[in-house]
Amino acid sequence: xxxxxxxxxxGQKLWLKGKKYILGGNMLLSKRPNLFLPDLWPTYFSKxxxxxxxxxDNKKYIDMxxxxxxxxxxxxxxxxxxxxxxxxxxxxxxxxxxxxxEVELARKLISMHKWAYKAKFARTGGEIASVAxxxxxxxxxxxxxxxxxxxxxxxxxxxxNINKKSSLKNHLFDxxxxxxxxxxxxxxxxxxxxNDFDSLLKVYKKNPDIGVIIxxxxxxxxxxxxxxxxxxxxxxxxxxxxxxxxxxxGFRENFGGLHLKYKIIPDxxxxxxxxxxxxxxxxxxxxxxxxxxxxxxxxxxxxxxxxIGSVAGLATLKEMKRIKSWKKITKIGKIIKEKWKRIFDxxxxxxxxxxxxxxxxxxxxxxxxxxxxxxxxxxMLKKGILANNSIYVSIDHDNKILKKYFVEFEKVIKKIQILxxxxxxxxxxxxxxxxxxxxxRLN
Length: 443
Prior knowledge:
With 443 residues, the chain is α/β, with parallel strands linked by helices. 38% of the residues lie in helices and 14% in strands. The strands form 3 sheets. The protein has a 7-stranded mixed sheet with strand order 4-10-9-8-7-5-6, sandwiched between helices. Strands 1-2-3-13 form a 4-stranded mixed sheet. It contains 14 helices and 14 strands. The radius of gyration is 22 Å and the shape is globular. It has helices spanning 10-21, 67-70, 79-91, 101-112, 125-140, 155-158, 197-206, 227-237, 258-262, 288-292, 307-323, 325-346, 369-381, 399-421, and strands spanning 45-49, 52-55, 60-64, 118-122, 144-148, 189-191, 210-215, 241-246, 268-271, 282-286, 351-354, 359-364, 385-387, 390-392.
């Protein structure tokens, strides 16, 4: 069996150096090599374009994986978006004055969401979720929060792990270290299960002073039995502020948020990731009753005023609307799901396929699935393809790219079947340690 030919692997060498100087080794847990191919993952990039990445040794890869962890629906370095950003840079990014583009972006988003009254911008998903919690608590005059989904690294969210009866263990890493989060916060945040309305009722029965519910509209599974409508009615009845976190789902299945598709309107909605197509911009939209009381709250940060994020957001929205990107990536994702099914059925692999059509993923019904995932990553890397068990679809994943991916992917799955039939354990064929499993999802 061929081995990965990159003795130089400058990315791995830099990773070892980075761990000496950077807390945690890098800035985002989801980009650490232990989640992919611990000893062999290229780890750092030199440049990108479309759905291609070049590593530090100038080797070119097709990105059939995270696409910037979901930030690049329009592909890397989209010409139309980058052109607007370049113009903005030449005029200056930040000054003593405010950037006028933030007003235009707010107006644009509110015009797309007729229920919304005012907007607030930040640069990361965790930030904007924390802003939303501050605004919601201010309105409800209650501190307790019920959660269903992933909402970032901040104390208010991770404190759910302090409470063993309502933790994040089915959703994040089992051994997630939450050192530094005050134990007192453990009495403030509680999790409930997606599509399980009774799980929310149980939490609320023990904590009737919950004033905020924050949740992802949809992630891995479709809402069932009027789940979202029940949540909305429950919030209305009990005067609870409802926040929909669409930092991941926004603009992937429709032009706006999934809540528009399901016709369930929250008090606050959050957008991020794809909103700037790789440039840092996140947004909060809120209705009149909630936002009117928040106008004088101290929510402020210097770099929220930089120009690039707002410019990128406007350019991205314009390009999405022009080409109807949500329709394209949904169609591509459906093709990927169907081809995965055909291959897994052909080679008698027990599997489960999940996710929005534009954020597709699969799992094998095996106890050591992380070994299978690592083996797939290892073998696909040899063919110049970045792959694991998830694909954040972009418009640049065209038929030519998909054909190359599936030719090589099927070869790997066939190899797995042959090895299993011979009783050969995949662990023996790994050229690195097995990868860690990524975030588990409540929904």
